[in-house]
From TrEMBL:
PANTHER family xref list: DIGUANYLATE CYCLASE DGCM-RELATED, REGULATORY COMPONENTS OF SENSORY TRANSDUCTION SYSTEM
Keywords, sorted A to Z: Membrane, Transmembrane, Transmembrane helix
Any one Pfam family match given in the protein's UniProt record, by short name: GGDEF
Record-linked InterPro entries: Diguanylate_Cyclase, GGDEF_dom, Nucleotide_cyclase, Rev_trsase/Diguanyl_cyclase
Transmembrane spans: 20-41, 88-116, 128-148, 154-180, 201-234
All residue ranges annotated as the GGDEF domain in the record: 277-406
Taxonomic lineage: Bacteria, Bacillati, Actinomycetota, Actinomycetes, Pseudonocardiales
Gene3D superfamilies: 3.30.70.270
Species of origin: Amycolatopsis albispora
Keyword Cell cycle: no
Protein origin, superkingdom: Bacteria
UniProt keyword Transmembrane present: yes
GO molecular function: diguanylate cyclase activity
Protein name: GGDEF domain-containing protein
Amino acid sequence: MGSLGRPTGWALWSAPRQVVVWVLAVEVVALVATAATASLAPVDAAGLARFGLLGACLVAHVELSRTIERKREVAAGSGPYLSTTSVWNFAGVIVLPPVLASAMVVLGYGYMWFRVWHRRGTMRPHRWLYSAGTVLLANQAAVVVLTLDPGVPATAGAVAVVVLAGGVRWFVNYALICVVKLLSEPSARVRNVVSGFGEQLLELGAMGLGLLAACVVDTPAVLLVAVPAVLAVLGRSAQVAQFRKAAETDGKTQLLNATAWTEFATHALDRTSRRGGTFGVLMIDLDHFKRINDEHGHGAGDVVLKVVAKAITAGVRSGDLVGRFGGEEFVVALPDISAVELLAVGERLRRWVAALEVPAGHVSISVGAALAPDNGLSVQDLLATADAAMYTAKHEGRNRVEAAAGLLP
């Protein structure tokens, strides 16, 4: 998994056809775009000196942040991962000839591979190559923007143009990563793929530091002294984003945990109530989950939880909030939905879970449905009402959806 050798054995070839086509197309376009911009500015002695200095800073960055970068890559999950070495890549876009700016990307990703991902086995070769390709393509887009002011690459002036170039670079890279995630996991919701915007603020902040690095690149002493400060800022920011995600996420299912779900659902209910809308809650409980653990082991129970979590996430809208409430209970918040639609969603989830194939055999769920304002005006009231309806469903035989009292005429 961690070797670049034998490309025919890469996991890419077992991916869905649309993923393979997309990844190969992005790589080809990145190479073509890189070749097209290579001759926009000549390579001179000053450019080579800057390349050497920025390259040294990049290598120092990788060496001093290897542990943090590996944790960020692992924690990214189904969301995109962006390396904080964009500090030096973006500085290179501003002050280096395009061909050397592209070489900076190759240096950074090559060094990261051999010092972080290859040694720890955390990233597959095709994913590494795709990430490098998206950054190369994003860099070329930024280079095109910078040609709006020919003086920018040499002087780091024209801040508005540089900021625009940085925004274009970020958007192209982020969009390409999100697209491949959605193609890889057709059942994934857009909201889940683009969530965690704190990581993207970190990327934008890294490019801001890249702009500062570009401004002082001709003063090597200042730049080298600034490297530890840059690493301290990025390292702390990365850890804060990582800790926040861990604090909000259930470790087994990667759904929101009970605390985070309640907080987000409360905000969503407040917004919905202010505009006079309705707000549905589904409380979902796996039937006979204790029996699954007792007969098949807790490992099989964990598999069931993960598979059911994916089915629930795939069966609701992208704006709905799915969480795990602990044990075998799940909960969904559905803003702006009618009673009939709410029960239809609950029934769809029940059917989908009943059709799942898991090692533990047949699984089913009991679902309780409540709706604001009919069944309560707070998240706590709706949870209590939906929970009571869910227990009614269990008492009526399980594997069914039950509406809260007063929900339907």
